[in-house]
Each structure stands twice: as structure tokens, then as C-alpha cells.
Amino acid sequence: MSSESDSADRRHAEAVAALRSIDPQWQSLIDQVGPCLHPVSAAQDPFQALVKAVAYQQLHARAGDAMVMRLRALFVDDSFPGAQALVELDDQALRSCGFSASKCRAIKAIAAARVDGLVPEVSAALAMGNEALVERLIQLPGVGRWTVEMMLIYGLGQLDVMPASDFGVCEGYRRLMLWNSNRRTGKWPGLPSASRLTEPLPPGICGEYRPTSATSIYLEFESKTRSACVLRQG
């Protein structure tokens, strides 16, 4: 096992221990879900990670994966295109990968911003604070806070990020509350309304989870996915 993997395992273990200390609800969820399997790999190029995050906007991960694969297939050896190659890519070719017109504009803007230096190289990105990166990159059309936060978590491997506006995170957290309510009362309370589920998490919640945010996100997504039939995990 590499030192990088060892470090990731230690970070997850520390995060899980911190989450366990919050309250019995988190203890129960962790016992049910098991070890955190959220991958922390070598930091990716922020340009690539941003393009991928745009692909996944408002889509199931498999649909986003398919679009990224089709994009890579347009280039030699299925390699991820460089920024200049994307700037020069015909719009129709980009649309053929499944990207909407708005996503095409966002991807082109990200590529142009990389050429101009607005989107930093990985070493410069890691040297910047998370919030500084968010403020810089949300200037790009089609790139909001959620998109940059996905880049930070899945591209740069940052654990101290909580995308509080993410529907899956909000639903996972609320299902955690519902599941524990059922354990206490033996009854399933009604699910929150769609409008409530789309409300951002309260600021205090986000504060509680730092710097364990990415680990808690994994657990919340797991609880949402595994509880689709009987809410058995949160």
C-alpha cells in the first residue's frame, strides 16, 4: 500500500472518529454503512476536474461518465484533451458527446480560462485556499459553487468541503434523521417535501462537519442510496 493510500486511510479514520463523537445518530449510521470508501487519489489537474464536474451537473454519475468517455474518444488514445484542443474543438463535436448547449459554453469557457491562466495548474491550486479557488472559478459561465466544490473533493482530494446545496447531501442528512426517528419510535415519519429537501443545510451543520466534510458526504450518499427501499441506512 502506498504512503498516499496510508495517509488517506488515516484521514478517513480521523474523520469517522470525529463524526462518531457528534451524536448517536452518526454512530448508528457509521455502524450500518461500515468503512468509508470515498477515494482520495492523487490530485488531478483542476482543468480536467472542472470539465468533469460540469459533465455531472444535474445528472446521474453514469450519464456523466458516458459523456466524458465520448469526449475522450474524440482524441488520440482516448486521452483527456488539453485546454487548447478543447478551445479549438468544433461545437457540434462537443454536442455529439451529449453535452447541452450551456454545458458546451461552460467547457469552452473553462478551457479558455486555462489557456489564459485563470484556471490554475494543480500545484498552484493546492497552494490556494478552497474559498479563494471558489471565488476565482465561479466567475466562469456555467461554473457555480457546487461545480468548484466537486472539483475540490473529487479532483484535489480536499476533505474540508461541504456542498451544502447538493440535493443528495441534503437528502442523505434528512434520511439519517428519519431513520433514527424510526428506530426510536417504530414509525416512519413522512418524508420532507421537495421544497424542504432542496433547502441548503443549516450553516451550523456544515460547521460541525469540518474538517470531516468529504467523509460525511460519502456516508450521507451511501445512506441515501442504500435506503432507497426501506430507509435502512439513514
UniProtKB/TrEMBL annotation:
UniProt-listed Enzyme Commission number(s): 3.2.2.21
UniProt GO molecular function: alkylated DNA binding; DNA-3-methyladenine glycosylase activity; DNA-7-methylguanine glycosylase activity
Reaction it catalyzes: Hydrolysis of alkylated DNA, releasing 3-methyladenine, 3-methylguanine, 7-methylguanine and 7-methyladenine
SMART domains: ENDO3c
Record keywords: DNA damage, DNA repair
InterPro entries assigned to the protein according to its UniProt record, in alphabetical order: Alkylbase_DNA_Glycosylase/TA, DNA_glycosylase, HhH-GPD_domain
Record-annotated HhH-GPD domain positions: 55-222
Pfam families linked: HhH-GPD (PF00730)
Protein name: DNA-3-methyladenine glycosylase II
